Records
---
Amino acid sequence: MKKGKKGLLIALIAANVFVLLLGILTITPALRGLAERIDMLGAGKPAPPALTEEEVEGEPWEDPFGYEFEGESQGSSFGESQLPVQNAADFSTEERPDLGDFQWYLEDVMYEGIPAAAVNITSLDALGGGWKALIFYDPNDEYGSNAYDFLNITLRGTAENLQLVFDWYLIFWSWEGETYDLTDMEDTVFTGRWEDGRIWASGAGTVHLTDFYTLYNKQFALGTMDTPDGIPALVALTRP
């Protein structure tokens, strides 16, 4: 091969190598940036498993917390009851309450409201029996009377002649930082009615229970209490 042609061939090869290197240097950062943007969007992560036909059709659903929801829908909104009338005896409890029983209320529901997945209870037959209860006096500490009263409440009777029996247990006075045993106190009976899906009962003050619902195989009730001395109070019930 003549020297002129050989030199030209070497020059062409060198030019091609230069262009290839230039392309690599230019494309690599662009690909890296694209990969980063894709990662930010969540691409490349495994897709969630598809719902089975049974799940779509409403078979019993097991939620991430380990409870089994027995309704027809796992996401029914509050106020749309999709559960049959429940057996109150399955929920009734005489176990004494403690602060841990009401974290759901004090740290969540009191500020955020009732969860969207809650199922409204509209039958008094599903509410009879024993409950763990909390009365939260002076929740905004406007009167210097902030306190947590833990007790058991038994709901009994009929819609027209209903009773709430308060079995006192412990009270924590926030301004003293002390807890007092109330188990020697005589039970207090409040009498009232079930009207329009709500309960009111009067005794040493008046109790208004306005919301009843089921969530994660537990029952909950919310309301307020008008105390004789005018101190505002919130009421929360749970079981089992």
---
Amino acid sequence: MKTQPYFVTVGLIVLACLRVSGWGEPHAAITKAGLETLPTEQKAFLGAEYARLVSTYCIIPDLVHKDKTLVPFATMYSSPGVVYHANLHLPAQQPENFEILRYFMGKAVAALRDGDISQAAKFTGTLCHAIEDWSCPAHAAPGDNMFTLFQQFLPPPDSMKNKLLHGPIEANKLNVVISDHKPQLLGTTIDEAAFRLLHRVNDGTVLARAQIIPIIQGIYAGDTNAVKEAQMKSATAGAGLVADAVYTIIALGTQNGEASNQAVLATADISPFYPLEAIDLFFAQAKFLSSPYWGHSHHGYVLAGGTNAIPLKLRVNDSGAVTSKEFASGISTGSGANSSLTYLVPQNVFKRFIVLAGLHPELGAKGGVEFSVSGNGKLLANTCVTGDQPAHRFTCDLAGVTNLQLLVTATKGSDPKSNYAIWAEPRLLK
């Protein structure tokens, strides 16, 4: 069901209330595709609620103004009295998104454990809606939900001047199929599942952004095939997220989930995660480093001179001998301004943080930095490393930590242009 957006102006123009239609009709197609991949026993467990999840529950956040009986399933304890939550449609910052995922997963699981499948399915539908909207191209441009800024960069043809693009970007009849997807357990607790889902959905948001320009260009050109092709990339990704989320809710609610990926769940590599400094999942210019180059942190490679991607490499102690070793997983950064990286950590899930920290053997030969690891503002560990020394291994206790910060600062007398610092294989361990 669709509702039209509206704005309330009081003095300065402020966003007071926003109704957005999400994927609109594709919500059902995406939800259905995700549910179709569930194991037979989970489908049977849902019973009649299976069809209702597809037909009604996945659009609960769009229906709350017309059907007041659905309001309890789309509101949060943190916002009493607020009927319409814009953040169930538009992705906010990571801490807010994490709380939304955690809240609705928790409510659904609690309802299942109480034996109320209908109530659980309604909370699950709201969660599906949020996941689908956060990974929808029409909702992925920060602060430009109507794409008026995009139209300044991509001027429309005369036939489309003064027309809002939100609806056309999301509207279509999509036949979404992910039959080769095998749902995965996202965690053994609500906090862990919401944490892992958050970072999966972050990737979905970024994927959706990559579809915006092709969709708009297709709309301008009247190329419906190009529009649908780009939409399908996001819809397919969203269906996979829905599949894993619903699978996990039922597994936790019935305490009957497969343990096939328990080894995978024992650790979390944070290097591909977006740090909190990457506001709206990108590094604004204010977050760029000043040394060793003008740029920002990267994962999976070192950006030599700010232009050339080369493998991550560190000097390491190997049975008493110091050798150079390449790493596929890790974060490259510098010692200049804004070299801090902060990550959410779910409570009571992971016990330790481990990482190997040092300077790139060639690029950082003349460098010298201090690596610091802090939790909730309290220093957990730190050490200084020069360019000719092997990397240092940190092992930090995460008891009570919900924000993990990695900081690199230049040591006195070092060459800032050589401070190619690397956090290799940064992992949270249970």
---
Amino acid sequence: MRKLLLIVLILSCFTASHAQLASVTNYGTLKVAPQSIDYSELLNAMQASNAQNAYERFKNEFVEIEDNPLAPTVNDPQKDAMYSKRLKMMATEIQLPYNNIVRRYIDLYTRDGGTMEWILGAARYYFPIFEEALYRYGLPMEFKILPVIESALVPYAKSSASAVGLWQMMILTGKYYGLEVTSFVDDRCDPVKSSDAACRYLRDLYRIYGDWTLVLAAYNCGPGNVNKAIKRAGQVRNYWDIWEYLPRETRSYVPAFIGATYGYTFQKAHNMTIRTPSYPMAVDTVMVNKMMHLEQVSSTISVSLDVLRSLNPQYRIDIIPAIEHEYPLILPTASVGKFIDAEMQIYSKDTVYLKKYLEVKNFSTATAQAVASSSSSGSSRSGATTYKVKNGDVLGKIADRYNVRVSDIQKWNKLKGTMIRPGQSLKIYR
């Protein structure tokens, strides 16, 4: 009887919600008549609303813990006791001890206007991707914080050691776990593929060490360095016991992880605000079966090139090299229908944006030579793009994005040094 009542209740709710959905286009605003339904817009509204509601529920139940909503001042003698108490409140299988080193990182991740405010916004998009991979491989959900300390949730981040992506993987490790790294594609920047690879790597490390803090250390500096530290410390198998024998960066790695985990969990207690990311929350995937430049899409449907790059950071020079097999293209959900409607038009623009890579009829020898020359010199003035400098940008990162040299950008923009400022416009020629 209870099951029957539940089914009737669900059906009645579905009937009512379906009648409303037929005339809803954006977050509950009744605008569109049933005969002019745009299903992509409806799906976009539903997914964005669901993502927001799920995030709010998570905040209310697990994040916004009401434990003294005002954070203590730096000189408050009760600060250490409060930090220690809050860490003990967190139910996790990863050891989260408190000490002076950890305190420094908690202060770093909770300071006013700090990195965590941007991370809290970006986490709405990335954390569900991380959590799905972590769940798939039976790893602690707290590891979703690992990309925070690795890359601050910047998918195309690159370290001085050439580790790349949200999870900061080296090429050898990435390829071992099946990631593609070519002149066109770097799957280490793909949020879904890199998360899957990183979780398999973490799982393999746990099979070796059986301790999550040692897994974190090995992920950062490599298992070889952890093994040497264990041996030098007298075969002890605890992160804090081998701490002084680890590389300098790794000595701060686990404390940073604890600090970021604390900052994420107790954001409300420190009055942190959430900065809304510039990319859409609701996205979907289409498969591309022909070589395509992202500008073929942005010039045809109303999706900016910056948004396409944000959603598809694995394509190094804005080209999807779909020659031998299909590649995914992530789009805002509301734009998927537009892409399908304009698909033939989008593909037909390859002769405009892919002259360097396609054998095109009526493509003269003189033009081919000019293109080859520009490709080899890296300084041609054809195909100019204007890039507006953002906070945190450096010339090296911009050069990597467009596959050009720093010296080229300096020459094109008459820069005497490497200093650039947010809001500055740079000309990029490709």
